[in-house]
Write a structure and sequence with these properties.
- It is built from 18 helices and 15 strands.
- The protein is α/β, with parallel strands linked by helices.
- Helix 11 links the parallel strand 8 and strand 9.
- The chain is globular.
C-alpha cells in the first residue's frame, strides 16, 4: 500500500496568486458554474474518491473544485511534467484538494505521483493521455477492478484505452469525452488552434506571415492549427495519411504533400497526429537552416528527438522554451518545448472559455457513469448525445445566442415519408 501525503507542490506560498488565477478562469466558465450550483446541493459524488491525471492549470482547478462541491474527495496529479502551473497547484492544496505535481518534475517523480493517486484506491478516474488508466491496468489490477468507471480527455488516451478494450484487458467503463462533438469542435479545433499559435509566439517570437507552415496531421487539432496559421498569413502545407482528411485539406485551399517533400520547404513544423516519429532523421536531414519544430500532440514522441541529437554536433538552450541544434553541415534546427505540448509548455493552454465545455462534459459524464453503473460494461463509450447537446445549449445561452425552434408542422414533416 502506498503511503498518502496531503499534497506535493513546488511552493505552497504561491497559493495567493493561484487563487486569483483560478477566479479568473471560474468567471469565464459559466457552464461549469451552472453544474456546480446544482451538484453542490445534490452531492452526487458524496463519499467517493476521484483520482485525476490532468494538466494542472487554472481551468482544471475549476473542474476539481466543482467535483469537490459535489461531495467528492479529489486526488490530482499532473499529466505532463512541464504543464503544471505551480501557483494553481498551491492554491488547490490550500483548498483541500490532494494535489501532486510541479513544473519540471522528473519522469521518476511523474510516475511516483501517479502511483500516489492510484494508492488512494479511487472510485472514479479522469485521465488526460491514458497514463493513469494504463498504469492501473498494468501495475495495479486489483485496484482497477474496484473502479466504477472513468473519463478520458484526449485522442491519445482514447486510442490507448480502446487498445486495452480490443485486447480484452479493460476492466471498467470509460467515457471518451474527447470524442464528444462539442469537445472536438471547441477544444481540439479552436482551443488548440489558438493556443498552439500562442505557444509558438511566446517561445520563438517569430513572424508567421509569409512562412511555409507545415501541419502534420489534419484531424480536429491539425485543422484548427492550420486555420489559425492561415489567418496569420502563413502558406500552410498539410501532411496527412488519411485520404479523406487530405482531400478536405486540399479543398480548404492548403497544399497537401508527403513529409519528405514538406521537409525541404517548411519553415515551421507542428505535429498533431498522436503517432510516433512522424518527423524523423530522414526528414530533418532535408530541412532548411533555421527550421522550427513544435508538437501539439499529447506525448513528446511525434518528433524523433533521438534522431535530431544523432544528427547534431552541438546543442544549446536559447531560452526556457527553445533548444538550438547544430547539424554537421552547420545548419540550425530549433526544437520548441522539448517536443512536448507547445501550447501548454510555452503558453497557458486553451482559453478558459474553451475548457468550460470540455470540463462540463467531464462532470456530467462522471455523473452519468454513477447513475448507470449497473448497466455499463468495461468498454469505451461515446458521450451520450443528450449530454453533448445540453452542454452546447448551455454554452450558447452563456454566449447570449438564441436557438431557433421547429414548429409542429416542421417537426411532423421531418418525421414523415410524405413530401
Amino acid at each position: 500500500m502506498i503511503s498518502i501525503i496531503e499534497y506535493k507542490v513546488k511552493d505552497i506560498n504561491l497559493a495567493g496568486i493561484g487563487s486569483k488565477n483560478i477566479d479568473w478562469a471560474k468567471n469565464h466558465m459559466p457552464v461549469l458554474s451552472l453544474i456546480r450550483d446544482r451538484i453542490s446541493k445534490e452531492k452526487p459524488f458524496k463519499g467517493l474518491k476521484i483520482a485525476a491525471c490532468m494538466h494542472i492549470t487554472k481551468e482544471t482547478a475549476v473542474l476539481m473544485l466543482t467535483l469537490k462541491e459535489g461531495g467528492a474527495k479529489i486526488y490530482l496529479t499532473a499529466s505532463n511534467p512541464l504543464s503544471t502551473q505551480d501557483d494553481v497547484a498551491a492554491a488547490l492544496a490550500k483548498s483541500g484538494i490532494h494535489v501532486y505535481g510541479w513544473r519540471g518534475e522528473s519522469e521518476e517523480d511523474y510516475f511516483k505521483n501517479i502511483d500516489i493517486v492510484i494508492g488512494i484506491e479511487p472510485n472514479l478516474v479522469i485521465d488526460d493521455g491514458g497514463d493513469l488508466i494504463v498504469r492501473l491496468h498494468e501495475k495495479y489490477p486489483d485496484i482497477a477492478k474496484k473502479i466504477i468507471g472513468g473519463c478520458e480527455e484526449t485522442t491519445t488516451g482514447v486510442i490507448r484505452e480502446k487498445a486495452l478494450e480490443k485486447e480484452g484487458k479493460l476492466v471498467f467503463p470509460i467515457i471518451a469525452v474527447n470524442d464528444a462533438l462539442t469537445k472536438r469542435l471547441m477544444d481540439n479545433r479552436y482551443g488548440t488552434g489558438q493556443s498552439t499559435i500562442q505557444g509558438l509566439l511566446n517561445a520563438a517570437s517569430v513572424l508567421i506571415a509569409g512562412k511555409n507552415f507545415v501541419v502534420v496531421g489534419y484531424g480536429y487539432v491539425g485543422s484548427g492549427i492550420a486555420k489559425r496559421a492561415k489567418g496569420m498569413g502563413a502558406r500552410v502545407i498539410i501532411v496527412e495519411v488519411d485520404p479523406i482528411r487530405a482531400l478536405e485539406a486540399a479543398l480548404e485551399g492548403y497544399e497537401v504533400m508527403s513529409m519528405s517533400k514538406a521537409a525541404e520547404i517548411g519553415d515551421i513544423f507542428v505535429t498533431a497526429t498522436g503517432d510516433i516519429n512522424v518527423i524523423r532523421g530522414e526528414h530533418i536531414e532535408r530541412m532548411r537552416d533555421g527550421a522550427i519544430l513544435a508538437n501539439s500532440g499529447h506525448f513528446n514522441v511525434e518528433i524523433n528527438i533521438k534522431d535530431l541529437e544523432k544528427l547534431s554536433i552541438g546543442k544549446r538552450s536559447l531560452n526556457e522554451f527553445v533548444e538550438e541544434y547544430t547539424l554537421r553541415d552547420g545548419r540550425k534546427i530549433y526544437l520548441l518545448a522539448e517536443g512536448r505540448l507547445v501550447n501548454l509548455v510555452a503558453a497557458g493552454g486553451h482559453p478558459s472559455d474553451v475548457m468550460d465545455v470540455s470540463f462540463a462534459l467531464q462532470a456530467l459524464s462522471l455523473e452519468y457513469i454513477l447513475k448507470n453503473k449497473d448497466k455499463l460494461k468495461p468498454v469505451v463509450y461515446v458521450v451520450p448525445e443528450s449530454i453533448d447537446k445540453e452542454v452546447a445549449r448551455l454554452k450558447l445561452k452563456a454566449m447570449n445566442m438564441e436557438l431557433e425552434t421547429l414548429t409542429e408542422e416542421q417537426r411532423s414533416y421531418l418525421e414523415s415519408y410524405i413530401i
